[in-house]
Amino acid sequence: MCNLKARFIILSLIFFSITFNQVKSEEKTKLLKVDWSFKGITGKFDRSSLQRGYQVYTEVCASCHSMNLVSYRNLGEPGGPEFSVDQVKAIAANFEVEDGPNADGDMFTRPGRPSDKFVSPYPNVQAATAANGGAYPPDMSVLVKARKGGSDYIYSVLMGYEDPPAGFELEDGVYYNKYMDGKKIKMSNPLSEGIVTYSDGTDATEAQMAKDVTTFLTWTAEPHLETRHKMGVKVLIFLTIFSLLVYLSMKRIWSRIDSEK
Amino acid sequence: MDKPEKKGNRRDFIFTASYTVGAIGIGATIWPLIDQMNPDSSVKALASTEVDISQIEPGKSVTVLWRGKPVFIKRRTQEEIAEAQSVSLDDLPHPEKDQDRVKNPEWLVMLGICTHLGCVPLSDKGEYNGWFCPCHGSHYDTSGRIRKGPAPTNMEIPKYAFVDDNTIKIG
Amino acid sequence: MSENYVPSSKFGKWFNDRLPLLTLSKHLTDYPTPKNLNYWWTFGGILTFCLISQIITGIVLGMHYVAHADMAFNSIEHIMRDVNYGWLIRYIHSNGASMFFLAVYIHIFRSLFYGSYRSPREIIWILGMLIYLLMMATAFMGYVLPWGQMSFWGATVITNLFSAIPLVGESIVTWLWGGYSVDNPTLTRFFSLHYLFPFLILGLVVLHIWALHVPGNNNPIGIDIKKPSKDTVPFHPYITIKDLFALLIFMIIFSGFIFFAPNILGHSDNYIEANPLVTPKHIVPEWYLLPFYAILRAVPDKLGGVVLMLGSIFILMALPWLDSSKVRSTVFRPLYKKFFWLLVIDVLALGYVGAMPAEGLYLLIARVGTIYYFAHFLIVLPVLSRIEKTEPVPLSISEPVLGGMLKPEMARSDRKDV
Asked: CA-CA 20 to 30 A from B154: which of B44, B148, C185, C218?
């Protein structure tokens, strides 16, 4: 049976290497690797990075990219940027939200409330596409999960703008980015040093902003990541203890048969 | 079988521990399956509704939807206020002063749900000029208090506040 | 024996005379099981757990999911973000599908290795294959429900397989879709059937277990044993505790996926809402369907690919009649054992190339793999089972006396002198 077990282990290794290869094989240019605080089984978000990332998102990305699935209230929930209740109310109130119809049947705008979803920059996909030269700026709510390579990929694209190599043809309104498919992207480099002024005094370098906004986008894609990690550790500890107890029980029960021999 | 007592004890301990830990595990697994049916965070976030009351004439009422339930906002006439305030507490199945049920005597804000089995009472009906529930015949007075019929308690007053003279915020 | 079981309490007897549930429960606890079952045999219990876990989490998800093309994607995200523990329940369900298939593949290969499909267990095997087919249908339709890009294009590609049928193909596809493309009517009918099929599976599982309890379990040596005897143990507590232990180890791996890599087995494109105007670069089915996908693409002809793909599953149903070896267990078939592992590697390789673009070396591997897959069942197995010189088989489990070169009649009879 030992032989079988060894084979099983080898086979499962093959199985997993296939699964992982599947993920890796299509990355053409090696992505930049960042030592994210949310990686690993006890990974957590860096609270201040999330708050800065939110600032980058609103001041830079939000003029084109919507975030339909996230509400202002989420900004104050545990495991996220954890703005205070008053901060969340103030953030929400900064936005004009269309509501209605009122008693007269008209739509009207009012200041946002925490329960509102993030206000989109364009009324619909067609408008967003038309305003951006035919390239729809994707909704950012689950963007990190919707791209192979996840957080590393988003960070790499933000840092991947370069002058095209000699002889590389670029059409109008298309930019060179070494991490994109075909090395072409229709979004101009969104980040430049000092484009935002961080309220906590952090130096707004390109790398810093790219890291912060990627952290923020990772949170919006997976808002319960911290709860998931915490619960996972507890579940694994529980299962290990329980399986140990069951193993001992099993040995005791089967010893009745073995002693009969 | 030489030392049955000792052997038995240890076995009992492992079995008992296994059963206990297993029961904890099952309990911890069942909770998420139950809790998922509780109001989710988007429902909880829709806590408050603001209502413009500037258009309501004395003696009239409006019904607004708050958390999926009707809320009656009634602008009471002086007679109705006097009637509500003059009732002796001894006559009430669920004694509550009218003053305790309103923030401003002119405005009565309450959940329009009969405390019997949850129907919506009709306004300006019934023997006490207040509300009447057509389902099982409960009569409420001009303060929304139960006077006659099967309902056990007065109609509930939600949390609300006057934002300004013309606006009420419910919730 | 449990058939003559009389409950000790008066009420128990009264009840049992009217509905013999206690007899059934006695039968299940006493059920004589070979005592040499190894851990490969614990996957039956693990699969039962998977099915029940999928049904429970699925019913819960159904309480929050909206089966409408405009709302399905957002309702899934609503579950992931707002519903209490919604993310947990959804990740259990989506990863549960993968774990279910992992377990079922081990279960199937265990049957192949130890000859559990052989007489007198053909019906168990065929029921199992029907369960497997329903599982694939259920998983496929379930994958459509989040209405992401892979959902949409996976549904388009798979339903289009039916268009390969001559004459009526196109009409069948239109009928399946309820329109001229995969759209809202397709989504709602897939939701309905995705909810129904697990209960059909549950029914088949009951029959599968019922059919198992007629001849009893096969065992690693593959010989028939007397039941109950020294070679058997009662199902409870011996097998239940062993199954529980294996299940817990399985759950540790399962939890690793749920809590620390919940999306690794899925495809990132499925977090983009379905868009009928844009096809993703590579359409890949979930990993558990990849070997079949490889077979489909290995054939340069549309109809031929579909026929071979379906054939690769249906050929398994004929297995009990393709194998005529004197011994059941591959343990005593040294030559066949080598081919068995070759088959395992072949299926894994097909799975690997199924995930790769169908070109160059990958296509070549897929073709060779497909040929071996069919050759294994149609040539290697029938021929080897006739000519191979098998090793001596023990006469019983508890007394490993070798019976020399056994005659099949001896191996199959219940020996009373042991």
From this structure: B44
Q: List the chains bordering chain A where 3 or more Cβ pairs fall under 8 Å.
A: B, C
Reference C396, options C382, C385, C386, C406; nearest CA is C406
CA distance A138 to B96: 58
Cα maximum dimension of chain A:
90
The span from the CA of B5 to the CA of A77, in Å, is 55
* Over residues A185-190, mean pLDDT: 92
User: Cα dihedral sign for C305, C310, C316, C319?
Assistant: negative
3-state DSSP helix/strand/coil percent for chain C, to nearest 5? 65, 0, 30
CB contact under 8 Å between C256 and A236, yes or no, is yes
**pLDDT, tens only, A239-255:** 999 999 999 999 999 99
Q: What is the dihedral of CA B153, B154, B155, B156, to 10 degrees?
A: -80
d(CA C288, CA A21): 15
pTM (2 d.p.): 0.89
B136 counts as catalytic: yes
Burial of C74 (C-beta count, 10 Å sphere; 0-12/13-18/19+): middle
How is residue C187 written in tokens? Answer: 């989504």
A 10 A CB-CB count for A95 gives 17
ipTM of the complex: 0.90
Q: What percent of chain C has pLDDT over 90?
A: 88
Unique residue bearing structure tokens 């904890």: B24
| The Cα angle at residue C47 between residues C44 and C53, in degrees rounded to 5 | 145
Count CB-CB contacts under 10 A for residue A14. 16
A residues 223-252 closer than 8 Å to B (CB): 238, 241-242, 245-246, 248-249, 252
The dihedral of CA C222, C225, C231, C237: what is its sign?
positive
Would you give the DSSP letter of residue C397?
S
A10: closest chain C residue by CA: C345
pLDDT, residue A1, reads 42
Of A36, A63, A86, A9, which Cα lies nearest the Cα of A212? A36
Residue C100's beta-bridge partner residues?
none
Restricting to A residues 156-195, those with a Cβ less than 8 Å away from any Cβ of C are 181
Contacts of B11 in chain A (CB under 8 A): 252
Tokens 């808002």 identify what position?
A223
pLDDT at A165 over 80: yes
Considering only CB atoms, which chain B residues are within 8 Å of A115? 42, 45-47
For residue B52 the two structure tokens come to 């413009």
User: Per-residue DSSP letters for C332-396?
Assistant: G-HHHHHHHHHHHHHHHHHHHHHTS-SSHHHHHHHHHHHHHHHHIIIIIHHHHHHH--PPP-BS-
Give the whole-angstrom CA distance, residue C338 versus residue A7: 13
Contact criterion met (CB below 8 Å) for A7 and C113: no
Please report, as a single letter, which amino acid is at residue C27.
H
d(CA C27, CA C1): 8
Which amino acid is it at B66? W
State the Cα–Cα distance between residues C333 and C345, nearest whole angstrom. Answer: 18
Task: Please indicate whether, in this complex, the C-beta atoms of B18 and A241 are within 8 angstroms of each other.
Answer: no
> Could you give all domains of chain C from N- to C-terminal order, each with its CATH number?
26-283 (1.20.810.10), 287-387 (1.10.287)
Q: Report the half-sphere exposure of C51 (CA within 13 A, side-chain side).
A: 21
Rounded Cα distance between A60 and A259, Å, is: 74
Residues of A in contact with C91 (CB under 8 A): 228
Contact yes or no for A260/C262 (Cβ under 8 A):
no
**B32, B37, B42 member nearest C82 (Cβ):** B42
**C99 Cβ contact partners less than 8 Å away, ≥ 6 residues apart:** C50, C250, C253, C254, C257
Q: Three-state SS for B19?
A: helix
